[in-house]
Each structure stands twice: as C-alpha cells, then as structure tokens.
Specification:
It contains 7 helices and 8 strands. With 181 residues, the chain is an alpha/beta fold.
C-alpha cells in the first residue's frame, strides 16, 4: 500500500493539472494527467512498473501497448519481470506501420499465440487501448488483460470490459484528485 500511496502522490504532484484541456479522445476536461511526467521520472517509473506487475495475471507472456505513452512502462515492466524471476517480453504498437523495411505495426519479440497484456499510462475512453488490443490480436496473440496506470473513470474501463477484456487500474483519477498536497 505504501508504494501505491507514493505513486498517487507522484501523479498528483508531477502529472495532474487543472484547467481547460482537450484530451486525445477529443473530449474536453477540467483535469489533465500527463503520465509521461511520472513514467519518465526514476521513482515514478519504478513504482509504475512494480504496481503494474503486481496486477499481472499469471498466464501473461508479454506486455505491450501503443507508443508513446506505453513505451517506458513496457521497458520497465520487462526489466523488472526478469529481476522478479517471472520474465515477460515486451512489444510496442506503432500508431502507423513503418513505411520501410518490414513495414511492421508491432516492434518486439511477439509470436502468434502469445498471451499478452496491453498497458497504457492514462485511460479515458479506451480508444488507444483498443487500438493496441486489435493490433495484438491481428498479430495472432491472445489479449488476456489490460492495465492502465491511471483510470480517469470516464468510460474507458467499461468499454474495455464490454469488449470482453479484463481491465485493471493501478489508481483512479478520483484518488489523485482527492490526494492532499
């Protein structure tokens, strides 16, 4: 619980902003969480990886997600999984396929049949998560879990669950907003 509380504090202090914002989903919001302000910070990324790995279900063989928000999380989870002697591979889903070489949409050691978890830093509508889910499934993988660091509780988790996937959040936006600075 100590790690989780410290993570909430870091998100509140480093990533949470109030004002008028247009989110990636196109929605307007009085709150914004810039997850990279935590996942590109040494303590923040360490906590994010530990807390996300704690949620990982046993059958997961690889973790991945949509670039750019998921990139540091994936790398840290892969490295820490080795240290915990429960290794998982990582993969990154590009926003568009490469226009050269293999023209890949996915980077990383991902084979058809791999059981995967999709991760991201902040979830609003679930659109980015579902794009990564579709890419992994198109590559022949089975998506068994989806994890977000911060669930804004604006329908994204519900949309992922309604599509038939397990959805877990490390923390919620309500917990961040309620944290006393």
């Amino acid at each position: 619980m100590e790690d989780r509380n410290r993570f909430i504090e870091l998100v509140r202090r480093r990533a949470y902003k109030e004002g008028h914002f247009v989110l990636a989903s196109g929605r307007e919001s009085p709150y914004y969480v810039n997850g990279k302000m935590v996942t590109l910070h040494p303590e923040g990324l360490s906590l994010a990886a530990r807390l996300a790995l704690d949620l990982l279900i046993p059958e997961i063989q690889a973790v991945g997600g949509l670039t750019l928000g998921a990139d540091p999380i994936i790398g840290a989870m892969v490295a820490l999984s080795w240290e915990r002697q429960r290794p998982v591979d990582g993969f990154i889903v590009r926003k568009e396929p490469k226009d050269h070489g293999t023209k890949s949409l996915i980077e990383g050691p991902l084979e058809p049949g791999t059981v995967v978890c999709i991760v991201e830093d902040t979830t609003t509508t679930g659109g980015s998560l579902m794009k990564a889910v579709r890419a992994a499934e198109d590559a022949g993988c089975r998506v068994a879990q989806v994890i977000t660091l911060v669930d804004r509780e604006e329908g994204g988790g519900d949309a992922v669950r309604e599509a038939g996937y397990r959805f877990d959040a490390v923390i919620t936006l309500a917990e961040v907003r309620d944290f006393k600075v």
